[in-house]
Specification:
The protein is α+β, with helices and mostly antiparallel strands and 237 residues long. The protein has 2 domains: 1-16 and 110-237, no CATH class; 22-102, TATA-Binding Protein (2-Layer Sandwich). It contains 4 helices and 11 strands; from the N terminus they run βαββββαββαββββα. It has a 9-stranded antiparallel beta sheet with strand order 2-3-4-5-1-7-10-9-8. β8 and β9 form a beta hairpin. α1 packs antiparallel against α2 (82-99). 27% of the residues are buried.
Length: 237
């Protein structure tokens, strides 16, 4: 097994940007206006779930979620162009902050989840144990008979926080055909073994809406994430 990996050895599962703010009660009146604003920008918009306090839409570009105290955009497309992701976020967030009259963000978060597949769960654990992680030798601890299956790091000061999690796991994927087709189509089940790399980069201090630009902030933070994660995984750069 290799004793180092880089972020490029993992496949993107999802990337999410989320804005949190104090409860915006205008959501009860203006959800329709928000989606009307972005309907020309996002294609094939479909309502996935709807309630007075939360609505989500699926599009070709990703998933939009609007809540009473938060909104987020998620993409699971393996796009190398961070600027395009930032463009989608800006279109949605501009509509939300305008119609809900949001002036302060209590938290801005960037969640990046990636996975690297292995043949078995044991191979995934061995890969995790072999990484040259800071201050953590691949040693069995606490009288456990197994190598570590999950390792977490967190950094936080008064302005910025970051959370990094590495986990060896088996993910079960199940899909059932609709009831009317259950006799003619088989159900789908698959297990995927691998390492999950979960990074959450977020602001701690409140951020003024006028001082934050998605087109500038997101590509910059995605570059920081790539650099820092490579350092954690053992690339050493």
């Amino acid at each position: 097994m290799p004793n180092s990996l880089t972020i490029d050895d993992f496949r993107l599962f999802s990337v999410t940007c989320e804005l949190r703010y104090r409860n915006a009660y205008l959501i009860y009146d203006r959800t329709g206006q928000i989606i009307e604003d972005v309907s020309e920008f996002f294609t094939d918009i479909n309502v996935a779930a709807s309630s007075p306090q939360q609505t989500s839409w699926t599009t070709k570009q990703g998933t939009l979620v609007l809540e009473l105290g938060a909104c987020r955009f998620t993409s699971n497309r393996a796009e190398k162009n961070a600027e395009s992701f930032a463009t989608y976020c800006k279109a949605f967030f501009d509509a939300v902050t305008h119609h809900l009259q949001i002036g302060i963000f209590t938290r801005i978060g960037l969640r990046y989840i990636l996975r690297k597949e292995f043949k078995s769960l044991d191979d995934s654990k061995a890969a995790l144990a072999s990484l040259m992680l800071p201050n953590l030798e691949p040693t069995k601890r606490f009288n456990s008979s197994d190598s570590p299956t999950e390792i977490l790091f967190r950094w936080e000061d008064s302005q910025i926080g970051a959370f990094v999690r590495l986990k060896a796991e088996t993910i079960e994927i199940k899909a059932m055909p609709p009831p009317e087709l259950i006799d003619s189509l088989p159900k789908f089940e698959k297990e995927i073994n691998g390492l999950t790399l979960d990074i959450d980069y977020y602001t701690v201090a409140p951020v003024d809406r006028e001082q934050w630009d998605a087109l500038e902030w997101l590509p910059q933070k995605l570059r920081i994430i790539r650099k820092e994660v490579d350092g954690i995984l053992g690339d050493g750069k």
